[in-house]
């Protein structure tokens, strides 16, 4: 009876402590946290429920007494009556001698020696002749690499180039006369994109102005990180104006230093 009363009082105390913390949480959220009454009450209720279960498990768990901390099954082992066995009669001298002679004179089965000899010989057996193609395979081992083509490129790179839509435009290894046009005067081409265009071999307005639809599709697909900018910003129409010596509103802003 005392144990049950102690358990109830512990549970009540745990939940009372949780209720106090939940009420404090409600007040703090309402005053300092700028929460509404409903939100603060909801959060306070969550704190109350969580802490109530937590405190109950921590403070109200039954504690074992020092004498009761035995391993499970120990009481059954100690309380169960032991069954005493009658001592076995000692074997007689003649019986012992007989069994000893039988074990010493027994021989293994006829096939045991043959099987063990075959097993030992099998580990050392090697083929007398090389298998067909074995020598060529051992000589070629390690000389082939995955994805390598006859021209020294990779199969993945060739597939990527063949999968690109459109047709690659004519490119230059370097700008004509050693001086490239300021491609940043085309709206949509910034400093980084200008460097990418130069790496692809495009340095002048007339190159961009002469692109066909298939060539535009190829450039759009190969502008890494800027795909679709040629079509979206109408590079070709702007390049035609600039290649003919004209200006656009955007190129005038670039010349005045208002853009870059």
Automatic annotation (TrEMBL):
Keywords noted in UniProt: Membrane, Transmembrane, Transmembrane helix
Region (Disordered): 67-183
Superkingdom classification of source: Bacteria
Chain intervals with Basic and acidic residues compositional bias: 127-142
Segments passing through the bilayer: 12-31, 37-61
Biased composition (Low complexity): 67-81, 94-124, 149-161
Protein name stated in the entry: NADH dehydrogenase subunit E
Organism from which the protein derives: Roseivivax jejudonensis
Organism ancestry: Bacteria, Pseudomonadati, Pseudomonadota, Alphaproteobacteria, Rhodobacterales
